[in-house]
């Protein structure tokens, strides 16, 4: 069975940056890309807030550049998904989805977090064409336009307030007759003249020729006064939460109530020797590419430090 000095699980900004640091330090590294090579960032279009690109850069090109940089230093990229791990003792045992197996002296968990969607076919159809799960990433493209935010919690309120600084009009689509957000966030959205809250409303679908042009909504679904109507919008933002991709590691690493991996202090250490977590899988707050990349660098440096003491 092949033994790998460092296995990076995940191929977003955190994973590739970790691989750049470890491989550049002379540590043979393998990156397992998972089902979405390049990570969640590849579901967007132009990235305008990643330093070093004054005109912005296509998200897929950015991730391909990171991949190539890691490969140039000697890292191997395997288009496989990790199906099972055993972190009881080193070297750690990993089983891939093609039934191949390896052991690894160190592991960087960079599996990210998956945005929750409503499950509408139109969400996939218009992905990158008006549908987004990140207002900070894509809000700039909707300056002086009309957008809708789905959700009624703190995240949805924060997204709506942020979008209101850019867009001409922001609708909040809330399925309940009230907001679940903290009182201060409720007050902020209710007092913002650009934000209109559509309570007891569900989304049935989206429409548009070359991108989102509107949403098909239903008010008080299933009630006697149920009413369906079309809402013209340019952008549709999901803010109903994220699910960190941490399930297979939970028998060994600590996670919070939402599943985000808890690391030690300001380090990427998980508490399992030689196992580190970087990026969105350990970040319930920011979920930004630049922060994920920075945490990947930290993880890569910790791998080097750990192996140097072995």
What does this structure look like?
This protein has helices at 13-24, 59-72, 121-125, 135-138, 154-164, 183-190, 289-308, and strands at residues 2-9, 29-32, 46-47, 57-58, 76-78, 82-86, 92-96, 101-109, 113-115, 131-132, 146-150, 169-173, 195-198, 201-207, 214-219, 227-232, 235-238, 242-244, 275-277. Helices cover 24% and strands 28% of the residues. A hairpin with a 5-residue loop joins β6 and β7 (92-96). It folds into two domains: 2-115 and 242-308, FAD/NAD(P)-binding domain, CATH 3.50.50; 121-238, FAD/NAD(P)-binding domain (3-Layer(bba) Sandwich). With 310 residues, the chain is α/β, with parallel strands linked by helices. The protein is elongated and about 65 Å long. It has seven helices and 19 strands.
Q: Judging from the principal axes of the Cα atoms, what is the shape?
A: elongated
Helix content: 10-25%
CATH domain fold name of the largest domain = FAD/NAD(P)-binding domain
Oligomer: single chain
Low-confidence stretches: none
Number of strands: 19
Number of domains: 2
Strand content: 25-35%
CATH superfamily of the largest domain: FAD/NAD(P)-binding domain
**How is the biggest beta sheet arranged?**
7 strands, mixed
Number of helices: 7
- Terminal CA distance: 21 Å
- Summing up helix and strand content along with how strands pair, one would put the structural category as alpha/beta
């Amino acid at each position: 069975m092949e033994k790998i000095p460092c296995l990076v699980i995940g191929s977003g900004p955190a994973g590739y940056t970790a691989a750049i640091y470890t491989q550049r330090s002379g540590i043979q590294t393998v990156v397992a890309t998972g089902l979405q090579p390049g990570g969640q960032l590849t579901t967007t279009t132009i990235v305008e807030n990643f330093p070093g690109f004054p005109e912005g850069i296509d998200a897929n090109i950015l991730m391909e550049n990171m991949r190539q940089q890691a490969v140039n230093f000697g890292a191997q990229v395997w288009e496989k998904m990790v199906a099972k791990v055993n972190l009881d003792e080193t070297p750690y045992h990993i089983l891939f989805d093609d039934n191949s197996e390896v052991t690894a002296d160190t592991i960087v968990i960079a599996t990210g977090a998956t945005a929750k969607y409503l499950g509408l076919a139109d969400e996939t159809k218009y992905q990158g064409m008006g549908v987004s799960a990140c207002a900070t990433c894509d809000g700039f493209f909707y300056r002086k336009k009309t957008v809708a935010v789905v959700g009624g919690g703190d995240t949805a309120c924060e997204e709506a307030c942020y979008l209101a600084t850019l867009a001409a009009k922001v609708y909040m689509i809330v399925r309940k007759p009230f907001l679940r957000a903290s009182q201060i966030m409720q007050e902020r959205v209710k007092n913002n003249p650009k934000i209109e809250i559509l309570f007891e409303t569900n989304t049935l679908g989206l429409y548009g020729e070359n991108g989102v042009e509107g949403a098909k909504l239903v008010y008080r679904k299933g009630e006697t006064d149920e009413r369906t109507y079309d809402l013209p919008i340019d952008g549709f933002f999901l803010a109903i939460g994220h699910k960190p991709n941490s399930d297979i590691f939970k028998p060994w690493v600590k996670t919070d109530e939402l599943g985000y991996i808890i690391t030690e202090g300001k380090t990427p250490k998980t508490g399992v020797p030689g196992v580190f977590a970087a990026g969105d899988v350990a970040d319930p707050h920011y979920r930004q590419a630049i922060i994920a990349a920075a945490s990947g660098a930290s993880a890569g440096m910790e791998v080097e430090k750990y192996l140097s003491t072995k």
